[in-house]
Model the fold of this input.
Amino acid sequence: MKKIEAIIRPEKMNDVKVALSNLGVNGMTVSNVSGFGNQKGYTQIYRGQEIVTKLLPKIKLEVVVSTEKAEEVIKAIVTTSKTGEFGDGKIFVFDVIDAVRIRTGEHGDAAL
Done:
């Protein structure tokens, strides 16, 4: 099993959710986060003064899928969230040793 964490633009969340749902991904965790990378934040004018905002709003999406499905999920996230501009985000992939469904006690892929 693989855990896929994707940091994406907030406006792309719905597109990614639909794409993953179409692939049969039936569970995900979504968090509102702030951060910066190559984009380095942005500058705005407030009451005549320049303010530099270092942290930008992003969405952190976490899904756990079977190893066989991982590449397909990654490709769907990249395809639906890519704009070609700085700030599109990153995807991190982790190995998952086990998963347990608390309600039934199922382990592994059956727990997904």
